[in-house]
Amino acid sequence: MNQEEKIKQFIENIYSNSQYNFNDSRYPEVTLTYAQTLDGFISGKPNTPPLLISGKESMLMTHCLRNKNEAIMIGIGTVLNDNPQLNVRQLTGFNNGGNVHNPQPVILDSKLRFPLDCKLLKNYREYKSKIEQKVEGYEKLTEIKPPIIFVNENQYDKTKAEILINYNVEINILKNDNNNNNNNNNNGSSLDITKVLSILKSKYNIHSVMVEGGAQVIRTFLVNASLIQHIIITIGPFFIGNGVKAVGDTIEKSELSETSESLPRLENTQSFTLGQDIIIIGQPVLSS
Ligand SMILES: NC(=O)C1=CN([C@@H]2O[C@H](COP(=O)(O)OP(=O)(O)OC[C@H]3O[C@@H](n4cnc5c(N)ncnc54)[C@H](O)[C@@H]3O)[C@@H](O)[C@H]2O)C=CC1
Ligand SMILES: Nc1nc(O)c(N)c(N[C@@H]2O[C@H](COP(=O)(O)O)[C@@H](O)[C@H]2O)n1
Q1: Residues whose CB falls within 8 Å of the CB of residue 114, separated by 6 or more in sequence, listed in order
Q2: Please, which residues have CB within 8 angstroms of residue 77's CB and are 6 or more apart in sequence?
Q3: Distance 239 CA to ligand 1 centre (A)
Q4: How much of the chain exceeds pLDDT 70, in percent?
Q5: CA distances from residue 144 to 65, 87, 253 in whole angstroms, order as listed
Q6: Is there a smaller number of Cβ atoms within 10 Å at the N or the C end of the chain?
């Protein structure tokens, strides 16, 4: 077995040992995963170029996780800062007829700041055009899905939404409920994450979601930890001194949701090194 096959096998085991039962839940199976430095940062200061924390082996693990999960969720802050692709391009068989799949991108974007020239849209449009024109090798391309975006009612530009809908982007409009439990210091523009997850399950039949960040989204899930089934953290073996902290400086008790009265601890933990990085895996549990 090569390294990619070993990582895929390892990831299979994580999910096959999971207690999660899709039929019993209103939500998809959620994996919160991100990479941080030894001093707890997930990126450099805001508006600086994306910080590569994962080494090549743990990045391969991230691509295997993307391949395993049906959807990948990020916040608009990450789209704007990193312009990510969120595909599985490091896996064998990518765009070559292999048995790999790109996850469905899901973006939390209350005010619809989604840039029309971002890679997520550009890659999708290029893929679609190649399929429609049947360019050579088109049958072997790995499918790219247009993003699903969640916005807050009354906070988004309807004209921009129309443009995106014409590009096959799905826009889901949520009622802005300031009493939701997603406190994350973003001035009342936070989407109700339980609604987002239940729509992903009921409307799109999505079974599994990998939540990749950024900081505000990680925080939202940690204060609603009953929604998470797995946490997988890559620790890069270096310090950077400052930047964006994975969970911010402090989380107040008042931020915790009704269903998650504490921040989680991990059970069934596993840790190992991948290249020079340390991987920590566990299932979050809440103390009562
Ligand atoms: N090292 C890693 O694994 C990763 C690092 N990052 C880094 O994270 C940084 C971006 O983080 P942030 O600025 O915090 O942006 P973010 O990606 O967490 O997006 C936050 C935005 O999402 C929207 N949003 C709507 N509903 C929300 C909800 N319920 N909870 C949270 N956000 C909601 C709001 O507009 C909010 O401003 C970037 O620098 C990026 O490089 C991002 C992903 C992974
Ligand atoms: N696993 C991981 N390790 C790092 O060091 C990272 N900086 C990230 N960032 C996440 O990956 C996205 C970029 O994805 P593409 O390479 O463009 O497909 C970035 O936006 C973060 O979500 N992840």
Answers
A1: 76, 79, 107, 121, 147, 149, 160, 164, 169
A2: 214, 215, 216, 217
A3: 21
A4: 95
A5: 16, 8, 40
A6: C
Tens of pLDDT, residue by residue over 29-87, are 999 999 999 999 999 999 899 999 999 999 999 999 999 999 999 999 999 999 999 99
> DSSP string covering 54-66, please?
S-HHHHHHHHHHH
Cα 17 to ligand 1 centroid, rounded to whole Å: 29
Residue 33 Cα: closest atom of ligand 2: 1
- Spell out the SS3 assignment of 94-159: CCCCCCCCCCEEEEECCCCCCCCCCHHHHHHHHHHHHHHCCCCCHHHCCCCCCCEEEEECCCCCHH
Residue 214: asked if its preceding bond is cis (omega within 30°), the reply is yes
Which tokens hold the place of 173? 């409009």
Which domains occur in the chain, in start order? 26-285 (3.40.430.10)
Kindly list the distances between the CA atom of residue 84 and the CA atoms of 79, 80, 130, 166, in Å, as whole numbers in the listed order: 6, 9, 21, 22
How far is it, in rounded angstroms, from Cα 21 to Cα 282? 18
**Predicted confidence (pLDDT) per residue in 7-37, tens digit:** 999 999 999 988 888 888 999 999 999 999 9
The residue whose CA is least distant from atom 9 of ligand 1 is 214
- Between the two ends of the chain, the Cα-to-Cα distance in Å is 43
Pick from 91, 283, 276, 253: nearest CA to 181: 253
